[in-house]
Write a structure and sequence with these properties.
The protein is an alpha+beta fold. It contains eight helices and 14 strands.
Length: 331
C-alpha cells in the first residue's frame, strides 16, 4: 500500500512537470508572433553549423569582371593594283646581267601617296575641341555664346535659325548666315554697342552646325555624308575611306553650284607640307576624284622608289625630285 502511494506521488509529480513545461511553451508561443517558426537568420545559422561540421564550406562566388578593350583603327591591306602588277612584271629579271642587278633594283613597287588612306577610323566623330578659324562660314545650327558686361552682366546662348538669323533679347534679330566668323563677331559687336552704350561684348562659338557633302568618282566609298561644318577637304577624304588606286591624287576637285571652286594636289601635302588647297567644305559641296593620270615607275638608287603620277613634271630632274633625290651609292 505504501509502495502504491509512492508511485502515484511520483507519477503526479512527473505529470506536473510536463504540464508546467507545456504551459510555459504555450505561453512563449503566444507571446512570440512567429508561433514557433524560426527566423531566416536562425535557419541559416543552423545550416552553417551543419555544413561546418561536414566540411562543406565553399567560398563565395565572385561576379565576372567585364574587361573593356579599346577600339583599334582598322588597317586596310589592299591587294596590288593592276598598275603595280604590271610594273612588277616589267622589273622581273630576264638575263643574267639583270639578275645580278636585281640585288639593287626593287622587284615590286607600290603607288605613291595612297598609304595615307590605309588606316580608316572606326568611328566618324565630328571635329570638336579645336579653335574656330576666322574664315569659318556661319550657318544654321551654329550656337553662339554672347557675354555682355556692363551695369548688369548677362550671358546668352543663341542658335542660328534656319533663316540664318540670330535672335538676341532686347536687341532684335541679326543676319549672320553666310558671314565668316570674324565678320559675324564684328557685326554683332557693332549692333550691340549701338543698343547698349558702354558695354563690352565677348563672342564665341559653342556648337557647330553639320553639313551634307557628296563623294563621287574614284573614291573607296562614294555617297552622301553628314560631316562637321569645320571639316576640311583632306580630313573628309581620310575619314570617308579615301581614294581608290585608280583615282588621281593630283587633281581632286571640289564643286560648288556646278562650278569647280578648288583643286587639290595631295603630293603638295605629302612632299612639301603645303595645304593651301585644303579648303573648308560647305553645305552641298561635291568632291569629285577623276581617274589617275599618266604614271612613271622609278626604281633603284633613289630615296623613295615607287610609282608616281605625273602632273607638270617633264624632265628627269623633275621626276628625281619626286623621289626625294638620289642615294649616295647611285652612279
Amino acid at each position: 500500500m505504501l509502495t502504491l502511494r509512492l508511485q502515484i506521488f511520483q507519477w503526479a509529480k512527473h505529470s506536473s512537470k510536463i504540464i508546467a513545461l507545456w504551459v510555459f511553451s504555450a505561453c512563449t508561443m503566444a507571446n512570440d508572433p512567429r508561433l514557433g517558426v524560426l527566423w531566416p537568420e536562425d535557419v541559416q545559422r543552423q545550416q552553417a553549423v551543419k555544413a561546418a561540421g561536414q566540411g562543406l564550406d565553399e567560398p563565395l562566388s565572385q561576379p565576372p569582371v567585364a574587361i573593356s578593350e579599346p577600339k583599334l583603327t582598322t588597317v586596310i591591306a589592299e591587294a596590288p593594283s593592276e598598275l603595280e602588277k604590271t610594273v612588277s612584271e616589267t622589273l622581273e629579271p630576264i638575263t643574267l646581267e639583270e639578275q645580278i642587278q636585281q640585288q639593287v633594283v626593287q622587284s615590286a613597287l607600290s603607288q605613291f601617296g595612297y598609304d595615307i588612306f590605309a588606316v580608316t577610323p572606326t568611328t566618324f566623330a565630328p571635329v570638336e575641341g579645336i579653335p574656330v578659324p576666322p574664315d569659318y562660314i556661319i550657318g544654321p545650327g551654329d550656337t553662339f555664346v554672347l557675354q555682355i558686361y556692363g551695369p548688369s552682366d548677362v550671358e546668352y546662348r543663341l542658335v542660328v535659325t534656319r533663316e540664318g538669323r540670330l535672335l538676341i533679347p532686347e536687341i532684335g534679330d541679326i543676319q549672320v548666315a553666310g558671314l565668316s566668323f570674324e565678320e559675324a563677331k564684328l557685326t554683332l559687336q557693332q549692333t550691340i554697342s549701338k543698343m547698349r552704350i558702354g558695354v563690352k561684348t565677348v563672342i564665341t562659338l559653342a556648337d557647330l552646325h553639320t553639313i551634307q557633302i557628296l563623294m563621287v568618282g574614284d573614291v573607296s566609298r562614294p555617297g552622301m555624308y553628314t560631316v562637321s561644318g569645320l571639316s576640311s577637304l583632306l580630313n573628309t577624304l581620310i575619314t570617308t575611306g579615301g581614294i581608290k588606286r585608280t583615282g588621281s591624287l593630283r587633281d581632286i576637285q571640289v564643286r560648288r553650284h556646278n562650278q569647280v571652286i578648288a583643286r587639290m594636289d595631295i603630293y603638295n601635302v605629302l612632299l612639301k607640307g603645303v595645304d593651301d588647297d585644303n579648303i573648308y567644305l560647305r553645305q552641298g559641296d561635291v568632291i569629285f576624284v577623276p581617274p589617275i593620270g599618266p604614271t612613271i615607275s622609278v626604281a633603284g638608287e633613289v630615296h623613295r622608289p615607287a610609282i608616281y603620277e605625273l602632273k607638270t613634271e617633264q624632265t628627269v630632274a623633275d621626276i628625281i625630285a619626286l623621289t626625294g633625290g638620289l642615294l649616295p651609292t647611285a652612279d
